[in-house]
Specification:
11 strands, 50% helix, 291 residues, 2 domains
Length: 291
């Protein structure tokens, strides 16, 4: 037998009433209908096994369809201010330890007013409840710890390489102009970015296309390229539907002439010199798209 507990929590309601009164309010997740039928948490054989002892009739009984319909149509779950604990673990024979809690769990997973996480609830006004799973949160925290450790390793590799730091800061925080910052400020800003968004930092720090993307971002900063939504535009030509497309464009030997025109304009503005566009086969598009 493996016990597993999850918690159903509700969105805090704001209003003129004292918090104590709002906390004491009885708020339920109620039954909803989908295509004129009540929402079910389980169906088929699983529904038959779980509801048989609750409805006290076999699935073959003539009253079963109506009783099952009424069960789902009247189902509701009271969620107090502190949340509602549900035991959703399984016995060794795969039957639920607490059948009713298990039914509630399966039901709210499909319910349109219940979000999988608190973040998803806060991002969607229709969601009024969310599921808190301690085990899932442990896994998420551990993943974040690993990302932070790997990000720290990549940051240490940058020691003294302020040129690469500037490229990383430029792609991690588009719109930032690291060339106007002192080395110490660049290092501090990049460190803060690593701490706030280790996954993003790690992704760019290990990206073989970092140099190209940093160059594209600088061209956008100086107005040589324009970004409308995700599209990147040079003059009247859309050279990429998104950054991946634009990187492919820059690495395609057929576009080296246009790319060198952009670089020449950048050199006139900033004094920076970039090497001529490197020749790259068109087939490289597949490699970039798969990253």
């Amino acid at each position: 037998m493996t016990s597993k507990k999850i918690y159903v929590r509700r969105r805090e309601t704001m209003g003129h009433l004292p918090k104590e009164i709002r906390a004491a309010a009885k708020i339920r997740i109620g039954s909803i209908f989908v295509n004129r039928l009540p929402l079910k948490g389980v169906e088929g054989e699983e529904e038959a096994q779980l509801l048989r002892p609750i409805l006290n009739v076999p699935p073959t009984h003539q009253d079963w369809p109506q009783k099952a319909h009424d069960f789902w149509a009247s189902l509701s779950l009271l969620v107090p201010f502190e949340g509602r604990e549900l035991e959703v673990g399984l016995r060794d024979d795969k039957s639920p330890i607490n059948p009713m809690d298990y039914i509630y769990w399966r039901w709210i997973q499909r319910h349109k007013h219940v979000a999988e996480t608190e973040t998803l609830m806060l991002d969607n006004a229709e969601k009024r409840f969310y599921i808190y799973d301690p085990e899932r949160e442990k896994v998420k925290r551990n993943e974040l710890v690993k990302f932070k450790k790997d990000a720290d390793k990549e940051f240490l590799k940058l020691d003294g390489d302020y040129s690469r730091m500037r490229k990383l800061l430029r792609v991690c925080v588009p719109g930032t102009n690291p060339d106007k910052m002192m080395d110490m400020d660049v290092e501090n800003a990049l460190y803060e970015e690593k701490e706030k968004r280790p996954k993003t930092f790690l992704r760019y720090a290990t990206d073989e296309n970092l140099d190209t993307q940093a160059e594209i971002e600088e061209l956008v900063e100086e107005g040589i390229l324009r970004r409308i939504g995700n599209q990147v535009i040079f003059g009247d030509e859309t050279i990429g539907q998104d950054m991946k497309d634009t990187i492919v464009y820059f690495k395609n030997r057929r576009n080296s002439g246009q790319v060198n025109v952009m670089r020449a304009r950048l050199r006139e503005i900033t004094g920076k010199f970039y090497a001529e566009a490197e020749a790259a086969p068109v087939a490289e598009k597949k490699e970039v798209d798969e990253e």
